[in-house]
Amino acid sequence: MKYPGKGNPRGNGKHSPIAIDFREGILLKALHTLRSRIRFRIYEKLVTAFLLTLIPILTISFLVTLSSEATIREDISVSLRSKVHSYLSTFETEMTRIIRMKERYMVDEDVQNLIMFHEIMPFDEQRTAMLSIQEKLRQFRDSSLFVQGIKLMVPELGRDIQDERIDHNFPQDEIDALREMRTTRQIIMPVNGTLILGDSYPNNAMSMQTPEAWLEVILSTADIETSLRQFSEFRDGQAVLFDQAGKWTLGMPPKQKQNQKQNTNTDTTAASSMGVPADALQAATKDGIGRFELGGTKYYFARETSELLHVTLLMYVPEKTVLGPLDWYKQLLWILAATSLLVILVFSLWIYRLIHRPIQRLTMAFRQLEKGEFQQSLALQYRYKDQFSDLYQQFNYMSSRLKQLIQDVYEQELSLKRAELKQLQSQINPHFLYNIFFLLNRILQFDDVDTAKALTRNLGTYFRYITRSSSDEVELQQEMDHVRSYAAIQSIRFGSKLQIELEELPAEAKTLRVPRLILQPIVENAFEYGLEDHQDQGQLRISCTMSADMLIIQVEDNGESLSDEVLKDISARLKIKDAAVETTGMLNVHHRLQLSLGASAGLLLSRSELGGMAVRIQIPATGNGLEQGGSGNVPSDDRRQ
């Protein structure tokens, strides 16, 4: 249970659970009354006002537009990816078929006979063989839409057998390209503005033997670009096929193609690179689907690479082309949103004056009432005659009545607290008093007057402190001085068998307000159960540690009789809260600390470095510690029971 600060009937804003529960019940009832009263007439005004807003329609419209846009974007991405994959698969299949046919033609019987035996063949047989090969080359050409022409060049024969004619021409650039393809194993090579596939006999690139024949398959770039344009069915869309080395591209826009034809001074590689905007190739650098922006225009793209042919297919389409129809609907939605915003603004001003301002005043009054500021929350005034006028009157009556009830509860709890603290501080074990009187008797028998004087002086100080009842709390320095008197008495009693280390309090801790008699019972417990029957020299150490928010006073002894089971049992008892049990000893102190200083205060037990028990007394260092109020009850058992 928490109690308010001493001498303040309102507890400085920190109230007891009884008062808080009682007050919360009244507040909840008042809030329920508030909700029930504004449910009818004001509710009708609110419904009428909200019907003027178009928020649901706007929300649904925006969601539909966004959903449609997302669906279209997804469909475009899926369509682009599907088309790119389909075309590239078809192109790869066709190129594979052409490559296989090319390889078969190089080992054709007529071709092999012409290569191997042309020197011993009569002219008629050579001519017949070349015509047969020419016919087969035409069949090869006609078998694929992507093949424009085929050449079989036999250098030793001095013949260039083409699908349409037989010539003696051996273009050096074509021979160089074929040699490079043989060495690098490149599939497609640009030559003179065209693309070729090449083969040789023998075709082993590692062989040192000079090839005896070259086969050149000229691809129809026009037909490939036509198929690319047909494949890119989106308006303003572009499909581009290019090699990974950047030597050639297919699928350039018509304007760029005309510029390329006019630029006759440009070499083959540079002319081929004009087939697609370089920025587009740089923007879409990874396979997959995505978006990029060029010149302020956003594009969707899909890209896929053929590992077999070492070529990449890129298709991109302007975002505006596919999402253009949605722009008009977005503009209509923005117009509708602006109109709705104006209506809502006017409506909000009206609601603020009619409802929000009175409710805000009532809410602020409830918050002041919650903090205990009764005077500020009383006498709410309202000039109109509606539900708020009735609510304000009821609130004024409730706050006045609540103030009186809380005042009565506080006074009752303060009286109970003072009575309990006085009863607890009076429960001090008289065991050591018997020993002191017997000790005084022995000292007088030995006529040790000086020791008797010191003992009686400290004993008088001791009795004067414990019998003083002018206040329930004292400064911590007074508690420490009382412990010094008690320790001095024990030093006289034990003599050389006792060593006491008593550390001074930090300067900032001396004025902390604490309950009376919280240190002496702990020290007394150490003497009675740890040091009184010690075989060797007993040690008692009292140390202090100060942090920003907590003062720790530690009392340690080197007692020999403390077992781990007893230590664990006493620590467990400190955590038990039982109001029906009488409290004495360390449990008495623990209870009073928490009752006065709050849940963070109290005792913690552990094994001391000296071997006996270490008792940590925790005292909050914020303020004087007495404003928080304690909580709970503790059991009465300790090592004396």
From TrEMBL:
How the protein sits in the membrane? Multi-pass membrane protein
**Where is the protein situated, by its record's location annotation?**
Cell membrane
SUPFAM superfamilies in UniProt: ATPase domain of HSP90 chaperone/DNA topoisomerase II/histidine kinase, HAMP domain-like
Please list the GO terms describing molecular function: phosphorelay sensor kinase activity
Stretches with biased composition (Low complexity): 255-269
Q: Which UniProt keywords are given for this protein, alphabetically ordered?
A: Cell membrane, Kinase, Membrane, Phosphoprotein, Transferase, Transmembrane, Transmembrane helix
Q: Which GO terms describe its cellular component?
A: plasma membrane
Keyword Transcription included in the entry's annotation: no
Q: Where are the transmembrane segments?
A: 46-66, 332-352
UniProt-annotated stretches for the region Disordered: 251-272, 622-641
Its name, as the record gives it, is: Sensor histidine kinase
One matching Pfam family is HAMP
The residue ranges of the HAMP domain are 353-407
Entry keyword annotation includes Cell membrane: yes
